[in-house]
Design a protein that fits this description.
This protein is about 50% helix and about 5% strand. The longest helix has 27 residues, at about 155-180. It is mainly alpha-helical and about 425 residues long. Bound molecules: acetyl coenzyme *A. Acetyl coenzyme *A binds near residues 265 and 356. Acetyl coenzyme *A binds near residues 265, 268, 302, 356 and 361.
Length: about 425
């Protein structure tokens, strides 16, 4: 018999269906609650609210499990490339060799951006933040592809819009870094794979031949895979809610970039590196003092804590190992890594962090690798966005395919009740 939950309000009791997912997660379906009782549920910050039934990503925050389409993040980070993972997220299955070749071929065909898109850079003041630029440039794609404005047009058109965005994203991200340095932009090269092309456009130079370093390509693939999806986080929920109004893909993803930028979300990777530098330069490496101040709520330990993980973030575990490997292979000796490890140790053995189940998250070590690879700190969250793009798109695509209702939460109004209008001459 189907499971039900009973809610009693005063004299009245109603039964609500319980839905169960394939990993035995359960939710009380309250969609008819207001209609039957006149009341709504209340859950600020959506800590306890399921907003969709999704087939894409499974996350168990208590046990530290993350899987895309059933495949563990550990396997994918070790054995797959970012384009394979993008295909998996978008289309539901790992690609065969032929499917992957075709997918990568399509991406290669759409890497160039309209020349006029580059003119947008002329209006950004020097030093403007890369995430603000990224948000603008992605949203601007909707002006260059007016046929993308109606996401209901046809599945073929939708797929072309998706391919265009995935293909142009590395070009746009690399352009942001090049323009920030005042260097000439490099056009994509069809001889490179997705990740190598991004590295070429970012670190190559018009004056020299560029040979991608396999260590760097491998590290970049891993980092992008680890960021590729994370179910209903703040930016993905933003993408979904914007998409639920049938806004086009570029507008929806532009909104996701805005949400990711915040320091409580993806912006934390930039904050972590700046925090570690501050500990080195201003706190003179006194990690105990930093932990004490975090406990007194005088500062936040960026890269620690997560809404869902109350155990090790599995991505942080992989990145920590990768960080040691990449720095060793590149021959980089960064004192910030030692500070990060000391800080992690100090926090993980402190009752404040233990009781609150605050563990390092994905952002804690990623910045140290990005720095070793040569990315400037303000670019870190752009790299997060580059990785998260296939996840955002897959979630948006799923929402469109299911034709989900428009996202429109309720509220409890707690302002003035009705009061008479006071004309301006009588106002005090
Ligand atoms: N440093 C110190 N104390 C912390 C931290 C931290 N990083 N994170 C949480 N706490 C404390 C809170 O002050 C609170 O303490 P209290 O019980 O005494 O009031 C308790 O731990 C619970 O924290 P909440 O803020 O209620 O947890 P929530 O789930 O709302 O927030 C969040 C999660 C936003 C990630 C938070 O841990 C945080 O701000 N961390 C730092 C920023 C960061 O690294 N963000 C990246 C997250 S991963 C990602 O988005 C990709």
């Amino acid at each position: 018999m189907a499971e039900k939950a009973t809610i009693t309000l005063g004299e009245k009791s109603i039964e609500l269906p319980v839905i169960t997912g394939t990993e035995n997660e359960k939710a009380i379906d309250i969609s008819k609650l207001r209609g039957q009782t006149g009341i709504v549920t209340f859950d600020e910050g959506y800590k306890n609210t399921g907003c969709t039934v999704s087939n894409i990503t499974f996350l168990d925050g208590e046990q530290g499990i993350l899987r895309y389409r059933g495949y563990s993040i550990e396997d994918l980070a070790e054995k797959a490339t970012f384009t394979e993972v993008s295909y998996l997220l978008l289309y539901g299955e790992l690609p065969t060799a032929t499917q992957l070749k075709d997918f990568e071929g399509q991406l290669t065909q759409h890497t160039l951006v309209h020349e006029n898109l580059m003119k947008v850079f002329e209006v950004f003041p020097t030093g403007s933040h890369p995430m603000g630029q990224l948000m603008t440039l992605i949203s601007a794609l909707s002006s260059f592809y007016p046929e993308s404005l109606n996401p209901n047009k046809s599945p073929e058109q939708l797929n072309l819009t998706i391919i265009r965005l995935l293909a142009k994203m590395p070009t746009i991200c690399a352009m942001i870094q090049k323009k920030g340095k005042g260097h000439p932009v490099l056009y994509p090269q069809n001889r490179f794979d997705y990740v190598s092309n991004f590295l070429y456009m970012t670190f190559g130079n018009v004056t020299d031949e560029y040979k991608p370093d396999p260590v760097v390509v491998d590290a970049m693939n891993k980092l992008l895979i680890l960021h590729a999806d994370h179910e209903q986080n703040c930016s993905t929920s933003t993408v979904r809610i914007v998409g639920s109004s049938h806004a086009n893909l570029y507008a929806s993803i532009g909104a996701g970039v805005a949400a990711l930028w915040g320091p409580r979300h993806g912006g934390a990777n930039q904050e972590v590196l700046e925090m570690l530098e501050h500990i080195r330069d201003i706190d003179k490496g006194d990690v105990k003092k930093v932990v004490a101040e975090a406990k007194d709520k005088k500062r936040l330990l960026f890269g620690f804590g997560h809404r869902v993980y109350k155990n090790f973030d599995p991505r942080a575990k992989i990145i920590k190992v990768a960080c040691d490997n990449v720095l060793a292979k590149l021959g980089v000796n960064d004192p910030l890594l030692a500070i990060a490890k000391e800080l992690e140790e100090a926090a993980l053995t402190d009752p404040y962090f233990v009781e609150r189940k605050l563990y390092p998250n994905v952002d804690f070590y990623s910045g140290i690798i990005y720095k070793a690879l040569g990315f400037p700190t303000p670019m870190f969250t752009v790299l997060f966005a580059l990785g998260r793009l296939p996840g955002w798109i897959s979630q948006w695509k799923e929402l469109r395919e299911k034709n989900e209702d428009i996202g429109r939460p309720r509220q409890i109004y707690n302002g003035y009740t009705h009061r008479p209008f006071v004309s301006i001459k009588n106002r005090k």
